[in-house]
Amino acid sequence: MLEFEKPVIELEAKIAELRHMSSDDEINIADEVSRMQAKAGRLLSQIYAKLTPAQIVQVARHQDRPHFSDYIEHMIDDFTPLAGDRLFGEDNALIGGIGRFKGQSVVIMGQEKGNDTESRIKHNFGMARPEGYRKAQRLMEMASQFQIPVISLVDTAGAYPGLGAEERGQSEAIARSIESCLKLEVPMLSVVIGEGGSGGAIAIAAADRIYMLENSIYSVISPEGCASILWRSADYAKDAATALKLTAKDMLENGLIDDIIKEPLGGAHRNKLETISLVSSKLEKGLKQLTPWKSEKLIAAREEKFLKMGRAA
Amino acid sequence: MNNWLNNFIRPKIRSLVGTQKDVPENLWDKCPSCDNMVFNRELADNNYVCHHCDYHMTISAEDRLALMFDGGKYTRHKNKSVPADPLKFKDRKKYVDRLKETRAKTAEDDAIIIASGKIGGNPVVVALFNFKFMGGSMGAAVGEGIVTGAEIAVKTKSAFITVPASGGARMQEGAISLMQMPRTIIAVNRVKKARLPYLVLLTNPTTGGVSASFAMVGDVHIAEPGATIGFAGKRVIQETIREELPEDFQTAEYLLEHGMVDMVVPRSELNAVIGQTLSLLMQTKLSDNPKGKKSKDNKKSDSSKGAITVASVSAGGEKMSAADAVNQDSAAASVKKTA
Questions:
Q1: Do A31 and A94 share a structural domain?
Q2: CATH no. for residue A254?
Q3: Is B140:B82 a contact under the CB 8 Å cutoff?
């Protein structure tokens, strides 16, 4: 439970209790329930209207947020997962394949964090190894080959910091994956659906359109990591979260993303299906803007978009 | 003990505790690797490589440029200015203040230096990181430097060489520094598209967002002996996997073994090896340049006492210099190669 949601959750518990009682005693309970529900809604919108960056970090990492697999299930038809980098192995932290999005064939890929202990371990908590990024490269080449757009959903704390990952060239895999995005001959749309953790995120997000869910984050380093380096203590993670300007709003203001996708009241974790449908319609619009495409123009525009970042406006 | 961090910090500490005498105290340096004493002037003559153990110590940006370019001659290009402190970042100190102090201390505007000149007679643009400037961290200014350097290379039909010495992205510029990863890759790809060589000389350290972008997509990767090269920090990895890491983990030699770099080249041979590599890629017919690779006239490496011969270049059995072909063959045989 998120600490700042406590008043709402307590209220919701009371509502549930009242409902439970309502079978024996009918006096005015329906009224009371709807009054309390309205109050809970008001509280929620009050809380969510003024979340601090550190609180947004918590929401972005909330385990009940829709994950990659949820989007696949509700947004993509005929999803056909494709596995392996053809070089070393298969990485379940970064999954992808081909499928149909609103009738259009697409390559879709992204990090999957998992939603229980078993699946979290299977997906390595969404932290990909070089194999994941090399599979991404393979999938992007395939997209160019068949002229089908690419959708990537970003949700990772970062690329996996492990011995094997270093041995097999984590840096090179990420660099080449960014390069693959930049060389794509087809439109690429990315959505940060939870955590956009540094190199592990940008590896699959150097796209024509970059969107962020309202309560997602995108950062060069985790607030905890930043705090322990610059403040010499992870206790300052809250300050770091503010300083890093990692919220969707900040990212849009700094010209680093194209748009924000609103989340349902009280965050994506309160309504998975509505979240997915909001993401889906944003992607549909974005794809429409980019269709039909000419590869050369698309690549040139993508390059210009990134070359601009950090330059004077 | 023998890591780059100690090496970097030691002089500072020394200057803090050192007494103010007229006689310079630092006539002797202690090698951070073998603990032997080395005479200061000799060290400079030897490109800051320990005579006893060949440990490659920190070298200033200027000295590095001098030893890379033919005859130590090069032209510096002005850095384009970018908005400073776009995020109004503040940790224990304001980023603008940090920048101001570092600029005053280093007399540089940021962590990147763009220089052009010749190497082995070939026109070259070098984008070199200055580790003294906030740990060589990459923000918008560094990204802009690499973009500019690549543009100059394309315009002047020169090879482009990046020389990272960087802990990674500059945290104080948040996601803007992250976006320098795609940005620098776009830049170097324009060099490649123009069929000009793009080389990376990986020096100590090359990690994080720098290693995971332009530094790992070169046509040829050259690493300096002992340099730390990797993505994640050692400590982070140790905390994650809770296992002992191999002793040579993330060293240049380790990366050579794992197929991530083409060769590990000692400082004294940089000019020769880069020159020859560029000649092969840029003068593809010997008749293109009758002078060939005779234009090796790097004073530094010539004058250096006890220069490491080309035989110590570790590469996958390639010959590095015709002059030392005999030595090279035996060296190649001793190069560790993983199957």
A1: no
A2: 3.90.226.10
A3: yes
Cβ–Cβ gap A220/B237 under 8 Å? no
Quick: pLDDT tens for A227-239: 999 999 989 999 9
Predicted TM-score (pTM) of this structure: 0.88
User: What residues have CB less than 8 Å from A34, skipping those under 6 apart?
Assistant: none
Q: What is the pLDDT of residues B2-19, one digit of tens each?
A: 454 444 444 445 455 544
Q: Which of residues 72-131 of B touch A (CB under 8 A)?
A: 81-83, 86-87, 89-92
Per-residue confidence (pLDDT) for residue B302, from 0 to 100: 43
Contacts of residue B247, defined as CB under 8 A and 6 or more positions apart, other chains included, come to: none
Encode pLDDT of B168-225 as tens digits: 999 999 999 999 999 999 999 999 999 999 999 999 999 999 999 999 999 999 999 9
Claim to verify: residue A135 and residue A212 sit in the same structural domain: yes
Q: Is B261 on the interface with A (CB under 8 A)?
A: no
Residues of A in contact with B189 (CB under 8 A): 179, 182-183
Q: Are residues A112 and A259 in the same domain?
A: yes
pLDDT of residue B308: 37
Give me the domains of chain B, ranges plus CATH numbers: 22-57 (no CATH), 59-303 (3.90.226.10)
Is the CB of A310 less than 8 angstroms away from the CB of B245?
Answer: no
CB A115 within 8 A of CB A155: no
A105 domain-assigned = yes
Q: Averaged over B39-57, what is the pLDDT? A: 91
**ipTM attached to this prediction:** 0.94
Residue B209 touches partner A, C-beta closer than 8 Å: yes
Domain match, A83 and A38 both: no
**Of A35, A50, A65, which residue constitutes the final position of a domain?**
A50
Report the gap between the CA of A209 and the closest CA in chain B (Å): 14
Question: Do A196 and A112 fall within a single domain?
Answer: yes
Q: Which structural domain range is residue A23 located in?
A: 3-50
Question: A25 and A156: one domain?
Answer: no
Are A39 and A136 part of one and the same domain? no
Domain tally for chain A? 2
